[in-house]
Amino acid sequence: MSGHKENRDAVSDVALARAENSAQGSIPTAVDRDPAIPPVCCSLAISGDEQAKLITMFKALGNPVRFEIMKFLVTRPGCITGDIVEYLPIAQSTVSQHLKVLRDAGWIEGAISGAAVNYCLHARNIAWFKEKVGEIF
Amino acid sequence: MSGHKENRDAVSDVALARAENSAQGSIPTAVDRDPAIPPVCCSLAISGDEQAKLITMFKALGNPVRFEIMKFLVTRPGCITGDIVEYLPIAQSTVSQHLKVLRDAGWIEGAISGAAVNYCLHARNIAWFKEKVGEIF
DNA sequence: GCCCACTATCGTATTTTTGCGATGATAGAT
DNA sequence: ATCTATCATCGCAAAAATACGATAGTGGGC
Question: Which chain B residues have a beta carbon less than 8 Å from that of A35?
Answer without folding.
Answer: none
